[in-house]
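Milestone M4 deliverable, item 7.
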Amino acid sequence: MKKYTSYSVLVIATTLILASCSTLDRSGNRTLLPYVENQKVGFIDSSLSTQIQPNFKFVPDANWPYHFSEGLAAINILGRVGYVNSSGKMTIEPQFDAASNFSERLALVKVNEHYGYIDHSGDFEIKPQFEEAHNFSSGLAAVKINKNGDWGYINNKGELVIEPQFMNAGDFNNNRARVQTYQHREWGYIDKQGEFVIEPAYPNAGDFSEGLAAVELEFKQFGYIDTLGRIAIESQFLKAEPFAEGKAAVAMPESSNNLDNYKYGYINRRGEFLVEPAYDKAFAFHNGVARVKLGNQFAYIDEHGRQIVEPIFDEAWDFKAGLGLVKTGNKYAYINKQGLFAIEPKN
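Output delivered:
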């Protein structure tokens, strides 16, 4: 079969999808994927079998594409967010101005301009009281109490365990969280006791992922450090993203005379290029596939940098369960790793 090059692409057989897809999420639950039909959202499984009929009016928001976490998915219903279970039942009625998916048994929600956290029953475990807040990660969540206040961290009881003191704060990964201090506005990394394990020294810094974090080092270029603060990959990149599946998207200048123009490629943990810089934007690998951008259009590449579908999509999202959600015009579709339509464009 030919790869996808026009809208006349054939739909791949369901049996081929089953052979290449993982059907369970990280929690061991069946993976359900959203689809759009007649401006309503339903859910399919990785075999393309409809599990939840398209009963929900499509109102794209920050949670789109909808996904299940801990058995529930946050869905926008006419401007209010509620939660639906894997049977399609609305178990937490739409009542929130904004809401995230569940993480560590709690979900971050917004009510009357303040953030709090609910449990699986929709009851508040931590009352709305924060000006800004993050999801829980490694038992802690970054919160900002007042508009002009500092960032600190709470536990799942809502107790402040790291006092507000930071200009900005990230999530815990690899038992490290990046925080920005007022002194020189530099970033460092703290442990779960709030103690600096990597002193503030970086003008810019990213979260740890797979044991490495991108930080701005010499000459306003990025390299990577390990969880002890040792340089693992020397500074050489204009942009640097977190590692995923052993690879990280990084940007290099197209010309040494003009650092404003750059292209993205992918490196391994030794800093060696696996995919040479050629893209205007590049995103993390998921399911062995990464979305990339050329001009204003999206494409996908495999782990060897081979383009599995041409850059023709207006929007694209990470692969999940062997399928990638794409948008062309006002229509949504799914493609597989062969670059073929699994579900043709619909709206």
